[in-house]
Specification:
Helix content: 25-40%
Oligomer: single chain
Order of helices and strands: EHEHHEHEHEHEH
Number of helices: 7
Strand content: 15-25%
């Protein structure tokens, strides 16, 4: 069964939420790379049009333009260690986006990384049957994307210690909700162990 690692929204705006999960994510990414397993990234952002009233994007309506991530801004950029992983792993200068990249970066503008994106086609082309989800925020984009993967027929794992969010309460709520009704909640070392 082909398994892909889906690393969600590891961007500068969320740096404060990644203190404990970032080392785990890098460990998973290195393990997947070593085992030649697919790694896919998402990057959340909103266009100038989406950030201009009247707001057509539901997340911008909820958080306002000042609480939303502008595509191309410093907040939108990937966390340096994630950007370095991609850059050093792809044998070329800089980060290459798009589905043909060895490590595709899927741009998204809502919690669900499948909605309005080409994530499903990327997974299909790579013949993925299982998705391992990590990143930020546990209870928003990670949980929603993991549920969406499950609903699309993928065996789905959410990596508890490789996800981060704004509070312990939110983190636990996201993991509990997913684990109760959707897929497995696992820890980083368990994922590594299963692929040795």
């Amino acid at each position: 069964m082909t398994t892909a690692l889906l690393i969600v929204d590891m961007q500068n705006v969320f740096t404060s939420m990644t203190t404990t999960c970032l080392p785990k994510i890098l460990h998973l990414a290195t393990h997947f790379k070593t085992n030649s397993l697919p790694i896919i990234f998402t990057q959340h952002g909103h266009s100038k049009a989406e950030l201009t009233p009247p707001f057509r994007n539901q997340l911008v309506r909820k958080w306002g333009s000042s609480g939303s991530i502008a595509t191309g801004s410093h907040d939108w950029e990937l966390i340096p260690s994630i950007a370095e992983f991609i850059s050093s792993s792809t044998k070329h200068d800089g980060i290459k986006t798009g589905e043909t990249s060895p490590y595709p970066i899927i741009p998204k503008n809502t919690y669900d990384a499948f909605l309005n994106t080409n994530l499903a086609s990327v997974l299909e082309r790579k013949k993925v049957e299982r998705v391992v989800v990590c990143g930020v925020m546990t209870d928003c984009c990670c949980d929603t994307t993991a549920r969406s993967a499950f609903n699309r027929g993928y065996e789905t794992w959410l990596v508890g210690d490789a996800c981060g969010t704004a509070s312990k309460r939110q983190h636990e709520a996201g993991l509990t909700g997913f684990g109760d009704a959707f897929g497995e909640v696992v820890e980083t070392e368990e994922v590594v162990k299963r692929f040795q």
